[in-house]
Structures are given as structure tokens and as C-alpha cells.
Amino acid sequence: MTFKAKMDDKKISVDLDLTTIKDVLQYCKPKEQLVLFKKFGLSGNKEIPLQKIGNDYGLTRERVRQIESQGLMKFRRLIVGNERYIKLIKEATKLLKSNGGILSEDNLISKLINKGNLDFRSEEIKLVLVSDFDLYYLKRNKILKKSFYLDPIFEDLLEKISKYCVEYFEKKGDSEDVYNFVDILKKHFENKYGNIEYIQNNVFYINLFKLIKGISVFDGKIGLDSFISVNPKTIKQKIEYILEKENNPLHYQDISSKIIDWFNKPVKVNTVHNELVKNSNIFVNMGLGIYGLSKWGYKGGTVKEIIERILLTSNRQMTIKEITKEVLKEKMISPNTIILTLQKHQDIFHRVGKGMYQIKK
């Protein structure tokens, strides 16, 4: 470990090729080291919030924040000008620019690690990025998740766009094509913020959507987390989504396979089948293990019940061919089963001619 300096941290220049970030932090005051180690999880533990650190050491959250700020300032002075540090910042800046100027904390750090040539752990990357003047760190708040962004984007604008998104979908009550919604946002904000570089960049909005609490993007649509179309959570919701997506009745085994393909999560065929049976008011059994949605007009029931409903609705005599055609829209069965049902229930179905039936009055 070599430091080309005196002990005055304003003059210290650290060679990161021969030292670790932990070595650099030895030149911070003990309380600054302690706060930075705990706040950024540099010892291999989880990050500890400032409030918790303060509680553990009898300090206010504000005092801990001040110590953190002082430690970051000193850390910044210690590493500024070093090649590894500059390379990391350049890579981060390049990634942010190519992604619309904003990325979630996890996404940016993951992309940097995947570069494979920076030789920093995720905790160390975050410390370096947060300490830099040219990158802006957005801490988690009530509206947005943790992220890094570039000037000239500013936090107030991010919050305004985020609030607009949530309020828009609360009012609409349904999801929207994601790029249609991007166009809506551009038109709404371009007059006031048209001078901001990223305000017309589609990628900026796509990455921002991932940060907004209460908003989900899925399969080309955007909406509130509560919308099944963008955030199907339960097995029932996933089944409903698959059927809506396919817009056609499906066998329960096919539904199971498509859930695995679409959501990349294992699911048992029996679990799917049980959910279909349990929610018969939503999923209609059409026979042969095939299910459709009741909202499509399928009512389900036994073959006798379906024939009876068809004849009552038509309020006329119908041929066996006509009856069969209508029944097969609701239940996948053999046409012979329909004939046998008509013959078996002569107390309900009255034969009025060759191959003609009506409901007995």
C-alpha cells in the first residue's frame, strides 16, 4: 500500500492500483470510517440506515448524515485523479447517457460489474458513485426507488413526472400501451421542460417507469401495480392474463406451460387446475379440460343445462345441427352426446319433427 502524500487529506493522493478502498478509508476519521462502513455495507453486511446507526451510537440522524457527508468529501479528495476511479466514473457516465440519463441503483451497479474489468465490489462501486460530483444520487423516497442520474435532469422533475403517472392511471383505471403513454408525457412536459436533453428520449421514460413506486410495466403495457394486465401476482391473475393474452379458450395444461414461459416461474399443473375449478365464476369449464373466461359470454354448466338455455334464448324450434353448433361454442364434447341428452330428457326437450326440438311448455 502506497500513499504519495503527507497526512493532510487535502494533499493525499492514493494509488488505487496498489490499495483497496478500505485502505483509503483509513485516512478518514474513525467516526467517518464507522459510518461509511456501516452505511455502505463495506464489511460484507447489509447496508444500515442512518437512523439505525444513530440509534446504536446515541446520535441523531442529522448528526450521522453530517458525519457521512464529511467522510464522503474526504474520500472524494483522496481518490480524485486516480485512473481506476476515473475509469469507473467514465463507465458509469457512459451507461447513464446511453440509458436516457437515469438508471436504478441496482441496474447501474449490475451493468458496471458485468463489464468485468473494473475490479470493484458492488458496495465499493456505490461508495465511489455516491461520492462523485458529476453523478447525482437519488435516495429512496415515497415516490421513487434509489437511482443515479445525470445533469440536466433534476429531482423535482423526476417527482413531477412520477406523480403525473400515478394520478393518470388512478383516473383512467386501466393500463396503456407504454409508448403511447410516453408520447402523452412528452406532450405534457415538453413546453415547460423542453430545454432538458432527455425530455424527448424514450429510453429516459422507460427507465424512469421502473423507478416509480406503484407503477408496473409488463408486456408492452404500463399501469398501476393493482392492474392485472401489468402486474398479475396470484395464480388466478396469471391464468386470467394468459387467457386474455391468447384471446382463446385453452387446456389447463397449456395454461400451465404458458405461465412458466411468460413469468419464468415454476407452477404445478394441479395448482392451475385447482384454481380454475375454484373460480368457476371467472373460468368456465368447456369440457375436455378446456377453459374460457366468463366475460367472453361463456356460461358453462352441464350439456342439459346448456341446451335448455340455448332453446329458451332462441325461443323457437331448432334443428339438431343448430343446437349442436351453439353447444359446441360453450362445451367441447362429441355431437353424439348432444343427441343422447336430447333423447334422455324428453320431459324437457320436445321433439316436434324430424331432427327438430323445442322446450316443453
From TrEMBL:
InterPro entries linked to this entry: RNA_pol_sigma70 (IPR000943), RNA_pol_sigma70_r4 (IPR007630), RNA_pol_sigma_r3/r4-like (IPR013324), RNAP_delta_N_dom_sf (IPR038087), WH-like_DNA-bd_sf (IPR036388)
GO cellular component: DNA-directed RNA polymerase complex
Origin species: Candidatus Vampirococcus lugosii
Upper taxonomic lineage: Bacteria, Candidatus Absconditibacteriota, Vampirococcus
Pfam families: Sigma70_r4
Keywords for the protein's UniProt record, in alphabetical order: DNA-directed RNA polymerase, Transcription
Domain called RNA polymerase sigma-70 region: residue spans: 30-76
Name of the featured protein: DNA-directed RNA polymerase, sigma subunit (Sigma70/sigma32)
Record-linked Gene3D superfamilies: RNA polymerase, subunit delta, N-terminal domain, Winged helix-like DNA-binding domain superfamily/Winged helix DNA-binding domain
